[in-house]
Design a protein that fits this description.
It is a single chain. By secondary structure, this protein is mainly α. It has helices spanning 3-26, 30-48, 52-55, 58-72, 89-102, 106-114, 116-141, 145-156, 161-169, 174-200, 208-232, 238-262, 264-295, 300-311, 315-324, 333-354, and strands at residues 79-80, 83-84. It is built from 16 helices and two strands. Strand 1 (79-80) and strand 2 (83-84) form a beta hairpin. The radius of gyration is 20 Å and the shape is globular. The N and C termini lie far apart (46 Å).
């Protein structure tokens, strides 16, 4: 079977599964419906791999499939016997951050000195725009206090690895993207607790020092370990280098499933409204990030980068912090929804920019070719 025919076959399979899901829903066969809907998204994700334009959406579609399954069958993601799966969230986040550290090198930090303006603006806008937009949306929608705090928590977190992937797809400044993500992540133990206490303190009680330590052990220590791994071991075990990205992607999917399952009942009550709120939070971040950079006369590639760095948050870290606060089923809802939403929006935006080349001009924030 030719490659193109193989992927086209999965479009047909996904259509059949979608029709089967609709029929199962009409007949109120919800247990079966959960399996059919997840299978539909998985088949569609495989089909998307066959087209360059849609390839970047493949992982996001699979995430949606996992999340939808968790909504139908939360029991699979709450406990196994007497073991609570929520216990896995922190270790999984640490593994993901370790994976990020293995991809870093001292050269990435040297880049900081070469493009200070772009990094200062990118990090500043990230920690200014998203927290304030989060506060505005949480207030405007009149969510219950702990759910409102989750929206603000997402806004106060650093940018995530997904922004680097999207910057690459968008033909943006990848070096700037990696640098902004790295610096915003290193600043997270200080800025995230302070911003959350300042903006979200009236919604939930924030223990500042406890959160500083939680972020340090979730983010900084694994990053440092990953950086050490990069220089001491990386390249000696090729199979390990290849499997780390897959472990990270699988870890993100499992974290989202656990969060959705834990907050399913609350999600059914406010799900549609919270979906609109997180969509607006993400899109407004992209919009304000891009046009703020344009007003400061950044080159188009840097404007795209700053837009993605501002709008894309480390939703996994927000989920972990919600867990350490003991509010996984309420404060953890916004991060659980924001993750898939930002990946869908970011993939669409990156695909659009990928097909609209920026003007050929050397940016002051990019290294000039030697």
């Amino acid at each position: 079977m030719k490659r193109k025919s193989f992927y086209n076959l999965f479009y047909l399979i996904s259509l059949i599964l979608l029709i089967a899901w609709i029929l199962a829903t009409i007949r109120q066969l919800y247990d079966l419906g959960g399996w059919l809907l997840m299978s539909f998204f998985f088949a569609l994700a495989i089909a998307f791999r066959g087209k360059q334009f849609l390839k970047g959406l493949s992982y996001t579609v699979m995430i949606i499939g996992v999340v939808s399954f968790a909504m139908y069958h939360p029991q699979y993601f709450v406990t196994i016997g007497t073991f609570k799966l929520s216990v896995l969230i922190i270790p999984l986040l640490q593994i993901i951050m370790f994976g990020m550290g293995t991809e870093l090198s001292l050269k990435d930090f040297i880049n900081v000195a070469r493009m200070p303006k772009g990094i200062i603006v990118g990090v500043s806008f990230h920690y200014l725009i998203m927290p304030l937009v989060g506060l505005s949306i949480a207030t405007l929608f009149h969510f219950p206090n702990e759910i409102a705090a989750g929206i603000i928590l997402v806004g106060c977190c650093p940018s995530g690895l997904a922004s680097n992937v999207m910057s690459y797809l968008a033909r943006a400044n990848l070096a700037l993207s990696v640098s902004v993500t790295t610096i915003s992540t290193l600043l997270a133990p200080f800025l995230t607790p302070l911003l959350l206490k300042w903006l979200g303190g009236r919604f939930v009680e924030i223990d500042l020092l406890t959160m500083v330590w939680d972020i340090t052990k979730i983010v900084i220590l694994p990053l440092v370990a990953g950086l050490a791994f990069h220089y001491m071991i990386r390249g000696r075990f090729m199979w390990l280098d290849k499997i780390m990205p897959m472990i990270s992607m699988g870890g993100i999917a499992l974290i989202l499933a656990i969060m959705v399952a834990a907050g399913r009942d609350n999600l059914l009550k406010v799900g549609a409204l919270l979906l609109v709120a997180t969509f607006l939070h993400n899109v407004i971040g992209f919009f304000l990030g891009y046009w703020s950079a344009r007003l400061l006369k950044f080159h188009e590639k840097d404007c795209r980068t700053i837009a993605l760095e501002v709008g894309m948050q480390n939703a996994g870290l927000a989920s972990g912090l919600a867990l350490t606060m003991g509010k996984i089923a309420t404060t953890g809802l916004a991060p659980a929804i924001f993750g898939p939403v930002m990946n869908i929006n970011g993939s669409c935006l990156a695909s659009w920019w990928h097909n609209h080349l920026p003007k050929e001009k050397t940016s002051e924030n990019e290294e000039k070719p030697k």
